[in-house]
Amino acid sequence: NMRTIIFVILYGKEIKESSTLDSIISCESLVETDSLIIVNNGPFPIQENLDVFDSQCGRVYLDNSSLNIPLSKLYNSLIRNNEGFDRYIIFDDDTCIPPEFFSTLNLDYHSQVDLQLPKVISIDDNVLYYPIVNGNVIDSEDKSLIFSNNDIVYSIGSGLIIYKSCIEKFYSHSYDLFDESFALYGVDMSIFKRIEKLKSVYN
Fold first, then answer.
1. Cα–Cα dist 21/109, whole Å
2. SS3 of 89, please?
3. Residue 97 scores a pLDDT above 90
4. CA 140, 142, 148, 154 torsion-angle sign
5. CA-based diameter of the chain, in Å?
6. What is the CA radius of gyration of the chain?
7. Tens digit of pLDDT for each residue in 121-172?
8. pTM of the prediction?
9. Distance CA 187, CA 113 (A)
10. Contacts of 163 (CB under 8 A, 6+ apart)
11. Are strands 59-63 and 35-40 parallel, antiparallel or unpaired?
């Protein structure tokens, strides 16, 4: 069974106010080997009530340090400090995750997959915005599109599914996944720009 760790980054919200955490409670196929780390990134400490997640994951932890760390540094440190997982998933605090999100991940996975990207649809206008491939938003009914090394791909951080194999490729070339010269805007794109640099090594 693939061990999955989920990071949810809260900012200015209590646990009960996060649509991400609310939807995780309703998700299928989270198991005992999975872990959920809720990071309160500020600006104030929040109330700790993790009881609602007891049946969802094997380990649920709240980092209530509320330090307002730049997202690039936060993402990198979370990945580095939580070794031993096969799959790492990052969410912001206001994502609505479909109930079948976790149960379908394995259907689209095979040993050559380093990264999976969900379709990102805005709640405000119900329009699909990501992923963007070769400059175009991919609006396809095919739920398991596979992109080639020649494709230039961008998406946002929330919902990004990163596999251990991807992390190892970055680390073997002394790269963190996210560029820490970006604090907030551009953080999401920085991992894809670094992937473009690494492609020349692996092509």
1. 24
2. strand
3. yes
4. positive
5. 48
6. 16
7. 998 999 999 999 999 998 776 666 888 888 999 999 999 999 999 999 999 9
8. 0.93
9. 22
10. 86, 87, 88, 109, 113, 114, 115, 116
11. parallel
Distance between first and last Cα of the chain: 30
Residue that is written with structure tokens 């996975």 in the block: 109
Query: What stretches of the chain show up as alpha helix (H) in DSSP?
Result: 19-25, 71-80, 101-105, 164-172, 187-202
9: tokens are 């980054």
Question: 34: burial class by Cβ within 10 Å (0-12, 13-18, 19+)?
Answer: buried
For 61-86, the pLDDT digits (tens) are 999 999 999 999 999 999 999 999 99
Q: Extract the tokens encoding 119.
A: 């379709």
- In one-letter notation, the amino acid at residue 189 is M
Contact call for residues 46 and 10 (beta carbons, < 8 A): yes
For residue 20, give Cα distances in angstroms to 2, 82, 92, 97, 171. Answer: 22, 21, 7, 7, 29
Closest CA to 89 of 145, 140, 163, 22: 163
Residue 120 identity (one-letter amino acid):
V
